[in-house]
Amino acid sequence: MGLSVMIINIVYLISFACSFYIALSLLKLRKNPLIGIYCCAYCLLCCNVLSGIIFKNDLSSAPKAFCFFQGYMVQFICYITSMSVICFSHEIYSLLMNYKQSRFFESKKIYYFLIIIYPLILGILLFITCLKTGAIIPRELKCDVANPIWVRLLGYSGANFILSIPGTYFSARSAYILYKHLNQFKDFSLINEGISQTSQNSTPSNSQITQSRKFSQSLSLQNNLSQKRYNLTKEAVIRMSILSSSIILINCLASIGTIVSVLSHELLSKEVNINDWAGSVMGICTFLIFGFSREIRNAWR
Protein backbone atom coordinates (compact mmCIF):
# COMPACT_ATOMS: atom_id res chain seq x y z
CA MET A 1 0.00 0.00 0.00
CA GLY A 2 1.53 3.27 -1.16
CA LEU A 3 1.56 6.54 0.76
CA SER A 4 -1.02 8.18 -1.52
CA VAL A 5 -3.40 5.24 -1.07
CA MET A 6 -2.95 5.36 2.69
CA ILE A 7 -3.70 9.09 2.82
CA ILE A 8 -6.76 8.88 0.59
CA ASN A 9 -8.13 6.01 2.68
CA ILE A 10 -7.84 8.24 5.75
CA VAL A 11 -9.64 11.04 3.89
CA TYR A 12 -12.42 8.63 2.91
CA LEU A 13 -12.72 7.57 6.55
CA ILE A 14 -13.07 11.20 7.67
CA SER A 15 -15.63 11.85 4.93
CA PHE A 16 -17.57 8.80 6.06
CA ALA A 17 -17.73 10.15 9.63
CA CYS A 18 -18.83 13.59 8.38
CA SER A 19 -21.59 12.22 6.17
CA PHE A 20 -22.75 9.80 8.85
CA TYR A 21 -23.04 12.68 11.32
CA ILE A 22 -25.11 14.77 8.90
CA ALA A 23 -27.35 11.80 8.08
CA LEU A 24 -28.00 11.07 11.78
CA SER A 25 -28.67 14.75 12.50
CA LEU A 26 -31.20 15.03 9.68
CA LEU A 27 -32.85 11.79 10.78
CA LYS A 28 -33.18 13.14 14.31
CA LEU A 29 -34.58 16.44 13.04
CA ARG A 30 -36.80 14.69 10.47
CA LYS A 31 -35.76 17.28 7.90
CA ASN A 32 -34.16 17.28 4.45
CA PRO A 33 -34.72 13.60 3.60
CA LEU A 34 -33.16 14.10 0.17
CA ILE A 35 -29.85 15.23 1.65
CA GLY A 36 -30.19 12.42 4.17
CA ILE A 37 -30.43 9.93 1.30
CA TYR A 38 -27.41 11.56 -0.33
CA CYS A 39 -25.36 11.25 2.86
CA CYS A 40 -26.38 7.62 3.42
CA ALA A 41 -25.47 6.74 -0.16
CA TYR A 42 -22.12 8.46 0.19
CA CYS A 43 -21.45 6.50 3.39
CA LEU A 44 -22.02 3.31 1.39
CA LEU A 45 -19.60 4.60 -1.23
CA CYS A 46 -16.93 5.17 1.42
CA CYS A 47 -17.45 1.68 2.83
CA ASN A 48 -17.20 0.24 -0.66
CA VAL A 49 -13.92 2.01 -1.40
CA LEU A 50 -12.46 1.25 2.03
CA SER A 51 -13.28 -2.45 1.60
CA GLY A 52 -10.13 -2.67 -0.51
CA ILE A 53 -8.14 -2.47 2.73
CA ILE A 54 -9.08 -6.12 3.29
CA PHE A 55 -6.59 -6.99 0.55
CA LYS A 56 -4.20 -4.18 1.55
CA ASN A 57 -5.36 -2.45 -1.64
CA ASP A 58 -3.61 -5.10 -3.70
CA LEU A 59 -6.79 -5.70 -5.65
CA SER A 60 -5.09 -7.76 -8.32
CA SER A 61 -5.07 -10.56 -5.75
CA ALA A 62 -8.74 -10.05 -4.86
CA PRO A 63 -11.40 -12.43 -6.21
CA LYS A 64 -12.89 -11.36 -9.53
CA ALA A 65 -16.38 -11.34 -8.05
CA PHE A 66 -15.28 -8.90 -5.34
CA CYS A 67 -13.55 -6.66 -7.87
CA PHE A 68 -16.59 -6.61 -10.15
CA PHE A 69 -18.93 -5.84 -7.25
CA GLN A 70 -16.74 -3.03 -5.94
CA GLY A 71 -16.28 -1.35 -9.31
CA TYR A 72 -19.95 -1.66 -10.22
CA MET A 73 -21.23 -0.34 -6.88
CA VAL A 74 -19.06 2.78 -7.16
CA GLN A 75 -20.95 3.73 -10.31
CA PHE A 76 -24.36 2.64 -8.98
CA ILE A 77 -24.04 4.64 -5.76
CA CYS A 78 -22.99 7.72 -7.72
CA TYR A 79 -26.27 7.46 -9.63
CA ILE A 80 -28.11 7.72 -6.30
CA THR A 81 -26.08 10.66 -4.99
CA SER A 82 -26.47 12.65 -8.20
CA MET A 83 -30.23 12.15 -8.43
CA SER A 84 -30.62 13.08 -4.75
CA VAL A 85 -28.83 16.37 -5.34
CA ILE A 86 -30.90 17.11 -8.45
CA CYS A 87 -34.16 16.46 -6.59
CA PHE A 88 -33.04 18.65 -3.70
CA SER A 89 -32.17 21.44 -6.13
CA HIS A 90 -35.59 21.21 -7.75
CA GLU A 91 -37.33 21.19 -4.37
CA ILE A 92 -35.73 24.50 -3.36
CA TYR A 93 -36.35 25.93 -6.82
CA SER A 94 -40.03 24.96 -6.63
CA LEU A 95 -40.45 26.53 -3.20
CA LEU A 96 -39.00 29.84 -4.37
CA MET A 97 -40.84 29.91 -7.68
CA ASN A 98 -44.29 29.00 -6.40
CA TYR A 99 -43.97 30.16 -2.77
CA LYS A 100 -45.00 26.61 -1.95
CA GLN A 101 -44.09 23.15 -3.04
CA SER A 102 -44.97 22.18 -6.59
CA ARG A 103 -48.21 20.21 -6.83
CA PHE A 104 -46.56 17.58 -8.98
CA PHE A 105 -43.86 17.05 -6.35
CA GLU A 106 -46.06 17.85 -3.37
CA SER A 107 -45.82 14.47 -1.64
CA LYS A 108 -42.13 14.02 -2.53
CA LYS A 109 -43.01 10.53 -3.73
CA ILE A 110 -41.90 11.44 -7.24
CA TYR A 111 -38.48 12.37 -5.84
CA TYR A 112 -38.12 8.99 -4.20
CA PHE A 113 -39.36 7.32 -7.38
CA LEU A 114 -36.68 9.07 -9.45
CA ILE A 115 -33.98 8.20 -6.91
CA ILE A 116 -34.97 4.53 -7.26
CA ILE A 117 -35.79 4.23 -10.97
CA TYR A 118 -32.84 6.24 -12.35
CA PRO A 119 -30.10 4.07 -10.77
CA LEU A 120 -32.01 0.90 -11.66
CA ILE A 121 -32.30 1.74 -15.37
CA LEU A 122 -28.73 2.92 -15.83
CA GLY A 123 -27.46 0.29 -13.40
CA ILE A 124 -28.91 -2.54 -15.48
CA LEU A 125 -27.42 -1.07 -18.65
CA LEU A 126 -24.03 -0.64 -17.00
CA PHE A 127 -24.13 -4.13 -15.46
CA ILE A 128 -24.78 -5.81 -18.81
CA THR A 129 -22.13 -3.72 -20.56
CA CYS A 130 -19.47 -4.39 -17.91
CA LEU A 131 -20.31 -8.08 -17.86
CA LYS A 132 -19.90 -8.41 -21.63
CA THR A 133 -16.83 -6.19 -22.03
CA GLY A 134 -15.02 -6.99 -18.77
CA ALA A 135 -14.56 -3.25 -18.24
CA ILE A 136 -13.99 -3.48 -14.48
CA ILE A 137 -10.32 -3.97 -13.64
CA PRO A 138 -8.19 -3.51 -10.49
CA ARG A 139 -6.63 -0.12 -9.84
CA GLU A 140 -4.39 1.13 -7.07
CA LEU A 141 -7.22 2.38 -4.85
CA LYS A 142 -10.20 0.32 -5.97
CA CYS A 143 -11.57 -1.73 -8.82
CA ASP A 144 -13.12 0.54 -11.40
CA VAL A 145 -14.66 0.75 -14.86
CA ALA A 146 -11.55 1.40 -16.92
CA ASN A 147 -11.09 -0.93 -19.92
CA PRO A 148 -12.57 -0.22 -22.41
CA ILE A 149 -12.60 3.39 -21.29
CA TRP A 150 -15.78 4.33 -23.20
CA VAL A 151 -17.86 2.29 -20.74
CA ARG A 152 -17.17 5.00 -18.14
CA LEU A 153 -19.44 7.29 -20.16
CA LEU A 154 -22.34 5.16 -18.91
CA GLY A 155 -21.30 5.88 -15.32
CA TYR A 156 -20.88 9.09 -13.34
CA SER A 157 -18.39 10.41 -15.90
CA GLY A 158 -21.07 10.65 -18.58
CA ALA A 159 -24.65 10.11 -17.49
CA ASN A 160 -24.33 11.95 -14.19
CA PHE A 161 -22.59 14.87 -15.89
CA ILE A 162 -25.61 15.37 -18.15
CA LEU A 163 -27.92 15.00 -15.16
CA SER A 164 -26.06 17.69 -13.22
CA ILE A 165 -26.84 20.34 -15.85
CA PRO A 166 -30.50 20.84 -14.79
CA GLY A 167 -29.36 20.85 -11.17
CA THR A 168 -27.05 23.75 -11.88
CA TYR A 169 -29.91 25.55 -13.65
CA PHE A 170 -32.19 25.12 -10.63
CA SER A 171 -29.43 26.38 -8.33
CA ALA A 172 -28.72 29.45 -10.46
CA ARG A 173 -32.41 30.29 -10.86
CA SER A 174 -33.03 29.93 -7.13
CA ALA A 175 -30.15 32.25 -6.30
CA TYR A 176 -31.43 34.78 -8.84
CA ILE A 177 -34.98 34.66 -7.49
CA LEU A 178 -33.73 35.14 -3.95
CA TYR A 179 -31.62 38.13 -4.95
CA LYS A 180 -34.46 39.60 -7.02
CA HIS A 181 -36.90 39.61 -4.09
CA LEU A 182 -34.41 40.93 -1.56
CA ASN A 183 -35.75 44.50 -1.72
CA GLN A 184 -39.25 43.41 -0.79
CA PHE A 185 -38.21 42.79 2.79
CA LYS A 186 -36.48 46.16 2.99
CA ASP A 187 -39.58 47.95 1.69
CA PHE A 188 -41.73 46.07 4.17
CA SER A 189 -39.54 47.26 7.03
CA LEU A 190 -39.74 50.85 5.81
CA ILE A 191 -43.52 50.67 5.70
CA ASN A 192 -43.56 49.37 9.25
CA GLU A 193 -41.31 52.21 10.38
CA GLY A 194 -43.49 54.76 8.58
CA ILE A 195 -46.60 53.53 10.34
CA SER A 196 -44.87 53.73 13.71
CA GLN A 197 -43.73 57.30 13.06
CA THR A 198 -47.22 58.31 11.97
CA SER A 199 -48.76 56.89 15.11
CA GLN A 200 -46.23 58.76 17.24
CA ASN A 201 -46.71 62.15 15.54
CA SER A 202 -50.51 62.11 15.58
CA THR A 203 -52.76 62.67 18.60
CA PRO A 204 -55.61 60.22 18.17
CA SER A 205 -58.16 59.07 20.72
CA ASN A 206 -57.60 56.21 23.14
CA SER A 207 -59.48 53.72 20.96
CA GLN A 208 -57.48 54.77 17.92
CA ILE A 209 -54.24 54.41 19.89
CA THR A 210 -55.23 50.89 20.95
CA GLN A 211 -56.13 49.89 17.40
CA SER A 212 -52.94 51.43 16.06
CA ARG A 213 -50.82 49.55 18.58
CA LYS A 214 -52.51 46.26 17.77
CA PHE A 215 -52.07 46.84 14.06
CA SER A 216 -48.44 47.85 14.54
CA GLN A 217 -47.73 44.76 16.66
CA SER A 218 -49.42 42.51 14.13
CA LEU A 219 -47.50 44.10 11.28
CA SER A 220 -44.24 43.83 13.21
CA LEU A 221 -44.91 40.15 13.92
CA GLN A 222 -45.61 39.47 10.26
CA ASN A 223 -42.43 41.31 9.34
CA ASN A 224 -40.37 39.21 11.76
CA LEU A 225 -41.90 35.97 10.50
CA SER A 226 -41.30 36.96 6.88
CA GLN A 227 -37.72 37.91 7.64
CA LYS A 228 -37.13 34.64 9.49
CA ARG A 229 -38.60 32.65 6.64
CA TYR A 230 -36.42 34.58 4.19
CA ASN A 231 -33.26 33.93 6.21
CA LEU A 232 -33.93 30.20 6.32
CA THR A 233 -34.62 30.12 2.61
CA LYS A 234 -31.47 32.07 1.92
CA GLU A 235 -29.37 29.63 3.93
CA ALA A 236 -30.97 26.66 2.20
CA VAL A 237 -30.40 28.12 -1.25
CA ILE A 238 -26.76 28.91 -0.50
CA ARG A 239 -26.14 25.40 0.82
CA MET A 240 -27.95 23.86 -2.12
CA SER A 241 -26.07 25.99 -4.65
CA ILE A 242 -22.67 25.14 -3.20
CA LEU A 243 -23.46 21.43 -2.98
CA SER A 244 -24.89 21.25 -6.50
CA SER A 245 -21.93 23.21 -7.88
CA SER A 246 -19.50 20.87 -6.14
CA ILE A 247 -21.18 17.81 -7.63
CA ILE A 248 -21.19 19.19 -11.16
CA LEU A 249 -17.55 20.29 -10.81
CA ILE A 250 -16.51 16.76 -9.89
CA ASN A 251 -18.55 15.30 -12.74
CA CYS A 252 -17.03 17.84 -15.14
CA LEU A 253 -13.50 16.88 -14.13
CA ALA A 254 -14.31 13.19 -14.42
CA SER A 255 -16.06 13.67 -17.75
CA ILE A 256 -13.25 15.73 -19.29
CA GLY A 257 -10.66 13.16 -18.31
CA THR A 258 -12.80 10.33 -19.66
CA ILE A 259 -13.52 12.09 -22.97
CA VAL A 260 -9.83 12.85 -23.49
CA SER A 261 -8.96 9.23 -22.74
CA VAL A 262 -11.64 7.96 -25.15
CA LEU A 263 -10.47 10.25 -27.96
CA SER A 264 -6.81 9.35 -27.44
CA HIS A 265 -7.58 5.64 -26.91
CA GLU A 266 -5.72 5.65 -23.61
CA LEU A 267 -6.51 3.45 -20.65
CA LEU A 268 -7.41 4.93 -17.29
CA SER A 269 -4.36 5.24 -15.08
CA LYS A 270 -4.23 2.66 -12.33
CA GLU A 271 -2.69 5.16 -9.93
CA VAL A 272 -4.70 7.48 -7.68
CA ASN A 273 -5.90 10.40 -9.81
CA ILE A 274 -7.81 13.64 -9.36
CA ASN A 275 -11.19 11.89 -9.64
CA ASP A 276 -10.32 9.69 -6.66
CA TRP A 277 -9.26 12.68 -4.57
CA ALA A 278 -12.35 14.67 -5.53
CA GLY A 279 -14.64 11.82 -4.56
CA SER A 280 -12.87 11.34 -1.23
CA VAL A 281 -13.55 14.88 0.02
CA MET A 282 -17.27 15.10 -0.82
CA GLY A 283 -18.29 13.99 2.67
CA ILE A 284 -16.10 16.67 4.22
CA CYS A 285 -17.56 19.26 1.85
CA THR A 286 -21.08 18.21 2.79
CA PHE A 287 -20.24 18.65 6.46
CA LEU A 288 -18.77 22.11 5.84
CA ILE A 289 -21.91 23.11 3.91
CA PHE A 290 -24.58 21.66 6.22
CA GLY A 291 -22.78 20.87 9.47
CA PHE A 292 -22.58 24.47 10.68
CA SER A 293 -26.23 25.32 10.00
CA ARG A 294 -28.40 26.23 12.97
CA GLU A 295 -30.61 23.17 12.54
CA ILE A 296 -27.71 20.71 12.65
CA ARG A 297 -26.04 22.50 15.57
CA ASN A 298 -29.26 22.43 17.58
CA ALA A 299 -30.01 18.78 16.79
CA TRP A 300 -27.77 17.47 19.57
CA ARG A 301 -28.46 20.11 22.22
From TrEMBL:
**Key words, A-Z:** Membrane, Transmembrane, Transmembrane helix
Keyword match Transcription regulation: no
Q: Where are the transmembrane segments?
A: 6-27, 34-55, 67-89, 110-137, 149-170, 236-262, 274-292
Top-level taxon of origin: Eukaryota
Per its record, how is this protein called by name? G-protein coupled receptors family 2 profile 2 domain-containing protein
